[in-house]
Every structure is written in structure tokens, then in C-alpha cells.
Specification:
The protein is mainly alpha-helical. It has a single domain, classed as A middle domain of Talin 1 (Up-down Bundle). Helices cover 76% and strands 1% of the residues. It is built from twelve helices and two strands. Helix 4 runs parallel beside helix 11 (324-340). The protein is globular and about 65 Å long.
């Protein structure tokens, strides 16, 4: 008799992503059959609850995998899965129609601001309010910040100061070089995180040799892995449709164009945001750091080389350099992050500072 609830639960796990993808297909079919219709607000209200359910489902599947394989492998599952789908989404938009040469840059800086200030701020503040202080491994946080600083400056700041091409761009040779070193940096970081110094990215423990490793039961991961990919695919597709349906209303309301891109980035990051917040609330702050800072590294380490290779192949222009306002916020974020993760213990003050920077970033979208 116990197998019935389990069967019903398993069936529900399969039906959720299938139903969400079917719902997306219906929305697309109705939109193609009535191209002159403007269902923006109605479609948004229909998509939003489905989107939120799929975000929660993706987080639950990722956590199931994380508990099976151990840290830090578990957090890499959600981070890399989301980033790969994000790269595919960016490339599809970049190659579609006239494209947007600044889309990759705007997406990367939005992800950095959302993750390093919004998500980190909420996790630090929530954990501090509940536990006063939370411990984490300083060596792991320092490794994240070292690579993040190098990647962000090389890809988003350096293009403003090169001379081989005009404007905030890189020449083909420079773009190829930056793409290669970006992949090398991220690859070495993954080696450090998963092989060489795994202990830097696990929860602080009394016994330094007590670090969890892979459970070895890889056959048990097939079902949650497939469901995670299906759930993330549904999240990305519904996010794109949600943002597209709202875009008309944002333009009608006189909202800045950057707001729609920020909204897409925010929706794509929802699974990682929810997972990081949940980990902080149950006093697994190291996992929150792995999810938050890891997503920033994955975004730069995978998005920039992928988009650069596509633009080089098709001979398109790619704008990477930030304006002076965004560079100031980037440098401020990196500086405060170094102070936040430099002691091995967090408190609510650091979380509040990060949220202030995030609020400033949002404010400057409307009032640059």
C-alpha cells in the first residue's frame, strides 16, 4: 500500500514539466495563429504561476541530485545546467533577425549584479537574521572572487581600453584570445573545485577529513537528471515568452529598454536564487555561496566564449565594454564582495550593503 503514494508522486514529477512544455507549445501556437493579437498582460498572468511551479520543481530535482552526489558536485549540476540553457537562449536571440550586439554584455552584467548583490545579499541577510552569523570556507570564497574578478575585467572592462578596434569592442584576434583564456580560467577553477581542493567548497566541519564525495549510485540519478533538464527548459522557454509578452506593456508604460533584459536574466536565475536562499535558511551557507558565485563564473566562462565564437564565425559585431556607470558598480561589487567573504563569517550588515548596491543598480536602470 505504500507504493501508491510513491507512484502518484512520481507521476506528478513527470507530469509537471510535460504539462508546462505543453502549455508553452499551446501559447506559441495561439500566438502564431493570431499574430496581430496583443495578449501581453493576460498571457503574463497565465504564465507566471506555471513558471513559479517549474522553478520550485527544478530546485527540488537539483537538491535531490546534490544530496546523492555530495558537494561541491551537487551545486555544479544546477549552475551549469542553467548556464548552458542561458547560452543557447542568448545565441538564438543574437542570431535572430538583426540581432543585438550588446545582448551578451548586458546579460553578463545583469547576472553579476543579480547574483553577487541580489542573491548574496538576501542569503547573507536571511541567514544572519536567523543564525546571527554563518560560517563558510574562506579559501573557497577567495578562489571564486579571484577568478570572477579576472573574468569580469578581461571581458567587460578591457574592451574599453584596447586600440585595435574602435569603441567598446575587441578585434577578432583579441576576442579569440580573451575567449581562450576565459575558458582556461574557468576550466582550471572547475578542476580546483571538483578535484584538487574540493575541501575549499564544502561545509566547515570539525574533522577536516570528513568531506562528502559522490555516492556512486549513478543509476539513481537518471530520473532526477532528466526531470531537472526538462524543468529548466520549461523555465527558460516560459521566461522568454513571459518577458516578450510584458515587453509591449513596458514600452507602453515608458519603461527603459534595459528593463526587459533584466527581467529575462532575473527569471532565468530563479532556480539558482531559490536554491541558494533555501540553503541559507537551513544553515548551509557554503552551498549558497557555491550556487551564487558559481553561477556568475559559469555565465562569464561559458557565455562569452560561446557568443564570441558565433559572432566570429558569422562576422557579426560584438559589444563587450561597459559604460563608466556600470564599471563603477562592477568595481564596487567586487570590492564589497572581497570584504564580505574575507573573514569566514557572515552577518546582516554585509547582506544589507549588497542589497543597497543591488537597489542602486535597479534605480539606475530607470534613472541613468
Amino acid at each position: 500500500m505504500i507504493s501508491k503514494p510513491r507512484s502518484a508522486k512520481s507521476l506528478l514529477r513527470f507530469l509537471l514539466p510535460a504539462g508546462a512544455l505543453t502549455f508553452y507549445a499551446v501559447i506559441q501556437f495561439l500566438g502564431s495563429s493570431a499574430p496581430d493579437a496583443k495578449p501581453g498582460l493576460v498571457v503574463s498572468l497565465l504564465i507566471l504561476p506555471v513558471l513559479l511551479v517549474m522553478v520550485i520543481a527544478a530546485v527540488l530535482h537539483a537538491e535531490e541530485i546534490a544530496h546523492e552526489v555530495g558537494e561541491p558536485y551537487g551545486t555544479l549540476v544546477l549552475t551549469i545546467a542553467v548556464t548552458i540553457i542561458e547560452v543557447a537562449l542568448i545565441m538564438s536571440i543574437t542570431l535572430g533577425g538583426k540581432g543585438d550586439p550588446a545582448l551578451a554584455r548586458d546579460t553578463v552584467i545583469s547576472v553579476i549584479m543579480i547574483v553577487c548583490n541580489g542573491i548574496v545579499g538576501l542569503c547573507v541577510l536571511a541567514g544572519g537574521l536567523q543564525y546571527r552569523e554563518q560560517d563558510f570556507e574562506v579559501k573557497g570564497a577567495s578562489a571564486y572572487l579571484a577568478v570572477l574578478t579576472a573574468l569580469s575585467v578581461l571581458t567587460l572592462v578591457l574592451p574599453n581600453f584596447t586600440h585595435s578596434s574602435s569603441g567598446p569592442t575587441l578585434s577578432p584576434a583579441q576576442l579569440l584570445f580573451v575567449s581562450v583564456v576565459t575558458l582556461l580560467l574557468y576550466g582550471v577553477f572547475l578542476y580546483i573545485q571538483t578535484v584538487r581542493h574540493r575541501e575549499f567548497f564544502t561545509e566547515v566541519r570539525a574533522d577536516p577529513d570528513d568531506f562528502p564525495g559522490p555516492a556512486g549510485n549513478w543509476s539513481a540519478l537518471r530520473t532526477p537528471a532528466v526531470l531537472l533538464i526538462a524543468s529548466l527548459l520549461a523555465v527558460v522557454l516560459l521566461s522568454k515568452t513571459f518577458a516578450a509578452s510584458v515587453k509591449t506593456w513596458l514600452a507602453y508604460a515608458g519603461a527603459p529598454p534595459a528593463l526587459s533584459g533584466f527581467l529575462v536574466a532575473l527569471l532565468i536565475l530563479l532556480p539558482e536564487s531559490v536554491a541558494a536562499f533555501r540553503a541559507s535558511r537551513i544553515n548551509e551557507f557554503q552551498r549558497s555561496i557555491n550556487l551564487a558565485l558559481g553561477s556568475s563564473l559559469a555565465t562569464i566562462g561559458l557565455t562569452v566564449p560561446a557568443v564570441a565564437s558565433i559572432t566570429l564565425y558569422f562576422g557579426q559585431n560584438l559589444i563587450l565594454g561597459l559604460d563608466s556607470q556600470a564599471m563603477v558598480l562592477l568595481f564596487l561589487t567586487l570590492l564589497i564582495s572581497t570584504l564580505t567573504f574575507g573573514t569566514g563569517r557572515s552577518n546582516i550588515l554585509y547582506g544589507f550593503v549588497h542589497l543597497i548596491i543591488f537597489a542602486t543598480y535597479i534605480f539606475l536602470i530607470f534613472e541613468p
